[in-house]
Amino acid sequence: MNSAITHLTEEQIDDVLLGELAAAPAAHLAGCDACKAQVALAEAPIASFKAVSLAWSERRSATLPSKLIPSSASSWYRHASWAAAASAVLLLAIAVPVTRYEAASSKHQLASNSTPHITQPAQVNAALTVPNEILHEVRIQPVATGVSSGSHAVQIARDNQMLQDIDRELEASAQPPADDLEIQSVGNRSNPRGRPSNIRNWD
Amino acid sequence: MQLALDANMTNLQAVERSSSELDDIDALVRTYRPRLLRFVTFSIGDADLAESITQDCFLKAYNGRDKFRGDCSVNTWLTSIAVNLIRDQQRLQKFRFWRQARATAIDVHDAANFLPSHESSAEARILAIERTGQVQAALENLSVNQRTIFLMRFAEDMDLAEIAASISMPINTVKTHLHRALKAVRAQVGGSR
Predict the structure, then answer these.
(1) Among A43, A165, B17, B111, which is most buried by a count of CB atoms within 10 Å?
(2) Which of A18, A56, A68 sits opposite B108 (nearest CB)?
(3) Digits of tens for pLDDT over chain B (193 positions)?
(4) ipTM of this predicted complex?
């Protein structure tokens, strides 16, 4: 019977490895040492892979913790730490400019409070005859120096008096020329102190 | 009638045994982790990521143990969960397959020292390492489906029907992938004439 069938083909050897060899070639294989050797040669690398890879994974598995830690939890921690870090950066990004702004504002306030000469009411009144865009650029000229901190309260009182004078003069005027141009008046009526809202200090 | 009743009882006992097996997660991990870790590792070619996926696989199996119907072995069920997790990873593209994963590639050289006694001689160990490296290299050149099916068949000893059920693929398609994978591996390893 063996002489009737030639040795196993490559496909038939594959079938042997897959356990799908047909009956006739299987009968040949049972009595053919050459084919058995070929099959053994084909099986050996796969058998080695199976044994070595299992030994590798058993060893690797032995080094892992026996208790499982949910990776979702670890990812939650990772995400939470990222969120915390991002929040901290955001807070810093907001807090630093605000702090610096406040520090600069208080510095400017101190500087303006210590300024002995502010633009005189008459000058401001004259300036009111020009369009508001220019009025927005009214500057309080810093002429600093040499004023003791004890005079701050006096200076503040003078400034307030001056601004009240401005308010009175504005109310006394019939109609600001800016109204003709349909431009909003510089005098902020809703402001009880009547300060121009955006007088800029250019020190 | 009695035979059918016995068969039902046997199935019921198998389900109960498998269900109780799934209830003890520590025992589950001890029993199945090495094989599952091997399957995942050689499927994705990244040992570190394989550990993470294997862990997720056990957690998913434990959390979904009520869904286990007992119509396959626990190992097959775990393997099918692992296949889905690997696919999820591929979809998310959290890693690049094989060629980009060499940084945590698998080094099996040390493992050869732990081989069973019949391969414990120095010469046998060297030969086993060499052959393993050849198969490992050949696996890298397979398609994802071919590699998965090859590993299921030759590493996990799953039969074709189990493989087909695990990856939701017709059995003839599984056969085709398996034949191509085996042919490619044998051609690269040198076991073919």
Answers:
(1) B111
(2) A56
(3) 454 545 454 554 555 555 677 778 888 898 899 999 999 999 988 888 899 999 999 999 989 888 888 888 888 899 999 999 998 887 776 555 554 555 456 776 666 666 666 556 788 888 888 888 899 889 989 999 999 999 999 999 999 999 999 899 999 999 999 999 999 999 988 755 5
(4) 0.81
Chain B: residue nearest A75 by CA?
B52
Residue of B nearest to A48 (CA): B128
Both tokens assigned to A116: 């002995």
- Are the C-beta atoms of B153 and A18 separated by less than 8 Å? yes
Number of other CB atoms surrounding residue A55 within 10 Å? 23
With contacts defined as CB-CB under 8 Å, which chain A residues touch B178?
A: 18
Question: Where along chain B do its domains lie?
Answer: 1-105
SS3 category, B80? helix
Residues 6+ apart with CB under 8 A from A151: A114
- Full-model pTM: 0.59
Would you call A10 and B41 a contact, using CB atoms and an 8 Å cutoff?
A: no
Q: Are residues A113 and A168 in the same domain?
A: yes
Q: Tell which CATH architecture fits domain B1-105.
A: Orthogonal Bundle (1.10)
Range of the domain at A164: 99-201
Taking chain A, what is the end-to-end CA distance rounded to the nearest angstrom?
Answer: 113
Q: Which token pair is A11?
A: 């496909």
